[in-house]
Request: fold
Amino acid sequence: MSKNRSGNFFEDFRVGMKLRHATPRTLTEGDRSLYIGLTGSRSVLGTATTNARQLGFDVRPLEDLLVFNTAFGKTVPDISLNAVANLGYADVRFLAPVYPGDTLAVETEVIGLKENTSRRSGIVYVRSTAKNQHDEAVLTWVRWVMVHKRDVQADCPQAHVPPLPESVRVGSLPRHPFGPQVAQITALTGVADLWDDYAVGERIDHPGAMALNDSDHSIATRLYQNTAKAHFDARAASASEGRRLVYGGHVMSICKALAYDGIENALTMLAINAGSHVNPTLAGDTLVCATTVTGKFDLGDDHVGALRLRMIAAKNVEAASIVFPDTGAGRPAHSTNIVLDLDYTIAMPKKSATRSQ
Amino acid sequence: MSKNRSGNFFEDFRVGMKLRHATPRTLTEGDRSLYIGLTGSRSVLGTATTNARQLGFDVRPLEDLLVFNTAFGKTVPDISLNAVANLGYADVRFLAPVYPGDTLAVETEVIGLKENTSRRSGIVYVRSTAKNQHDEAVLTWVRWVMVHKRDVQADCPQAHVPPLPESVRVGSLPRHPFGPQVAQITALTGVADLWDDYAVGERIDHPGAMALNDSDHSIATRLYQNTAKAHFDARAASASEGRRLVYGGHVMSICKALAYDGIENALTMLAINAGSHVNPTLAGDTLVCATTVTGKFDLGDDHVGALRLRMIAAKNVEAASIVFPDTGAGRPAHSTNIVLDLDYTIAMPKKSATRSQ
Amino acid sequence: MSKNRSGNFFEDFRVGMKLRHATPRTLTEGDRSLYIGLTGSRSVLGTATTNARQLGFDVRPLEDLLVFNTAFGKTVPDISLNAVANLGYADVRFLAPVYPGDTLAVETEVIGLKENTSRRSGIVYVRSTAKNQHDEAVLTWVRWVMVHKRDVQADCPQAHVPPLPESVRVGSLPRHPFGPQVAQITALTGVADLWDDYAVGERIDHPGAMALNDSDHSIATRLYQNTAKAHFDARAASASEGRRLVYGGHVMSICKALAYDGIENALTMLAINAGSHVNPTLAGDTLVCATTVTGKFDLGDDHVGALRLRMIAAKNVEAASIVFPDTGAGRPAHSTNIVLDLDYTIAMPKKSATRSQ
Reply:
């Protein structure tokens, strides 16, 4: 009858378990303002109602990673309250825009488990899906996370590592009904570069840098109602020199915002193919990032094409010094100043859209 | 004719003085978002419009302590600008829900005064009430606060310590027209424990911990337009090792949010019976808390009962190590790591509500 | 074809260049809440919808400096990404109120250039104007900023320093259709002092003090989508002891909020006549400020007059110790603890408005 909730430990999970996370969350313009304040986001669709309308939306959609981090946060009390670290993402798909006033409800299925050889912890693989108030799926993702065991001696199920796609197949990328007006984005950003202008292999060093503070990463993480102890209690953050770990989703948001410069005409994220938080980020670190274009997909759409991008974020160095290992974002072998290796896919207007106007 | 405002000092107060505080304040969804970001609040009614509607509300009410802290902040420029410390609360009643767009106007009456023997300061007792734009009282409270004297030699009125109720009588607890749909809360939180499942004497150690930073406590305190110098100017915060004092209402909000785990199905706060900020909280402290159930009231309501709870918050220790002295929340004799002793009453659905569906 | 954006350096500017800044920005109640949390603003019109309605507005306008800082932020990626420091403002006029939901689009013309003798940097003079979604100008301003050269050897155009008005002429001050109901402001603030009660030469020492943290100045600066490197990357902030510079507009907002006490019945800012950030502000500094009344203009309006104010902000001293040099706000010769010298003009109700009721 004790009400001392301690969250799930590794030995509490079973493959096939389904969890409905508490509680649904409504996102508003207030959350967007705070998101902009915490990350510096300048996404075209998120920055002005007039931008959104000019590009064919009735309402200004919420920032993709605000949605991702909020939905992710919902899963934490059940999945990763006792996490050592979030290890990776796969098959993340942004299925539909989320608008202010929408409510997200999130469910998760455990799809894999693997105890570590130390027996102190294990890796939990989960598939989570966020639906809006119309029961429409807006986001789905797989992540795997290392979770402490409550009892090192506890027996655990046999290892089951689920097959994970190396990337979201082009055919599985979400399609949005963008119209010809998306070509007007260049007038809004003042930047001419569109889908046609990016080449596979091209590298972009983003000019900005962002120093992190304990206060703003913890405000962000609370905004997402993410309760993982390592972000709020230094004593729970092992391997962090006695300091609180910055939530990886905040690092993603910060770097996505820095990556505006060079990828200004991005419309939305379509997918995260793979991603890993390679080394811990702590308050006091200054983040920089660089991007390489790793794929370019026509989508059979007159107005919009997809770019696959690999963004690597580093701490306390120059963006130009970042080395891209050939291991792929999901399986990195990185130097210690690399904190994030993210493989994601965005939608960007085509020049043909401009011409067809 | 000088416009150098210095606020009221202890010798400026008289029993019976009435103050109408500047200025009314409208609360919005923006304030809620920031409140969630600053505190990590996960209250069911506040987290989603769909939650609120499922539980019988047309609109998602604002978080109880956001309302309390905002109304409290309004009183500071007149009452506690020159405070040494806020000492205690009594007879705090949450009379009606406050919704985004509502405007709070706050008035105060001085109900007691007692100079300290040092003659450097004295205790001011006040009763404050917040009304909404429909002139409906939504919150009323008594607090007492130690205020500096401008002039140690100044004569002060004879001591008058008002009689204060040890707790809000059950008959005086606000009643809200909750309907049978409140029983659906268990589906939202995923937690079965309802009013019937809590036993007087039961103790709950809340699993979370929250490190505090100067930035987020000062953002919170500014959000409440609370201008007490000790929170913003280390030079004004005596007895704080040259650092800014964390506003006690922020400590209450943080700990109320931590206490979600174990008391998930709380609907609203009905009252704060007594409370005191036992020791100062400073940036760098990590808060934890534990709760004991001290009362259980049927309210004669088919759907909802009241639980009286005593929450003690401590800094830089484990929740399990917190000792509950038998002195009562208003008159504590605590170890130095205890920062808050709060005696409050919440409404929670009954199982009978579930059965009656 | 490189997409490594590096922003404009001094040698990239030419007098007469026009820039349309990316992208328009919609401001909401969420931005206001965060602005209040970051600055402690208590402006009467901004604090409650009921206040605004009582004073003759249909909707609660946004805080003047929230609008200024947002519009200013839009110009940074094109003008001052590579700034050493923002040096001064002139002819800033608040032409029309901005309401939640309004979208600001900002354009700039380069009106002057002057290379420094070191040849490492130069001063860029710009006139910027923000328009709302109805193409109505809401704010116009001149500023000058020291910008790094990319290449010390690069040739630069001959110096052209534009003529700048010492102050906004009274005839050029924006006029707003305030009605007789503005006199009700004294009931809202509880302060009787109106336009008639301020005397030229009068000095007001504001009682508050505000300690700054890296986190809240960087949240504010990101909220304004201001990307100037010196605020986010200590390595880019030369002459700041290896720390991030606090954005000057945040200092202005903080001090404007402190100046509420003593100037409670201000309605809106009409103009900033001149202003300069005299010395850098860094996290850990505690700001105080004092104001002198330097002008009093009837405006030929029955209900409202204008006050010209000079506010000087200092760090880590008492407000009473601030010395006002007679050099004028635009050309200060200040001690090292002075951080801001701001010459601005506000509208305040007249007593005649009270009498005419």
